[in-house]
Amino acid sequence: MNPRLTSLQAYPFERLRDLLAGTTPPDLQLIDFSIGEPRHPAPAFVVESIIEHLHGLAEYPKILGSETLRKTIIAWATKRFSLPEDFLHPEHHVLPANGSREALFSVAQALFDSSSGKDLILQPNPFYQIYEGAALLAGATPFYLNCGSSGQPDYRAVEPKIWQRCALLYVNSPHNPTGAALRVEDWDFLIAKARQYDFILAADECYSEIYFDEAPAGVLSAAARSGSLDKVLAFHSLSKRSSIPGARSGFIIGDADLLAAFRLYRTYLGNAMPPFIQAASAAAWADEKHVIAMRQDYAEKFSAAAEILGDLLPIERPDGGFYLWLQVGDGEAFTRDLYAAQHVRCLPGTYLARTAHGTHPGADRVRIALVGELDTCREGLARIRQFLQTSS
Question: Domains along the chain?
Answer without folding.
Answer: 3-42+289-390 (3.90.1150.10), 44-285 (3.40.640.10)
